[in-house]
Specification:
The protein is mostly helical. Helices cover 34% and strands 0% of the residues. The protein is globular.
Length: 88
């Protein structure tokens, strides 16, 4: 399973909700055509990505999706990641 918001690769995240643990595992380890990102990003950065996906997938723009409550430590993980992840 790959993530996408538009295009033809992976599930459509506007229509499909992804829980935090699934997002975390796929972003960390990759699967199928999706590469692992653990060598490129810190643990906090990956947790930030996973929290964002879990919070916003399966919902219209600006709304929380049905898996939002599974987003462990989000958005705190983004603040811990610092820089652009923390909104800076």
């Amino acid at each position: 399973m790959l993530f996408r918001s538009a295009g033809n690769v992976g599930p459509n995240l506007t229509q499909n909700a992804v829980d935090y643990q699934t997002a975390l595992g796929l972003i960390t380890n990759g699967k199928g055509g999706m590469p692992s990102f653990k060598a490129q990003y810190s643990e906090d950065q990956i947790k930030c990505f996973a929290g964002y996906v879990a919070t916003h997938s399966g919902a219209p723009a600006g709304k929380e999706g049905p898996q939002a409550k599974t987003a462990e430590g989000y958005p705190e993980s983004c603040k811990a990641a610092g820089g652009i992840f923390a909104g800076g």
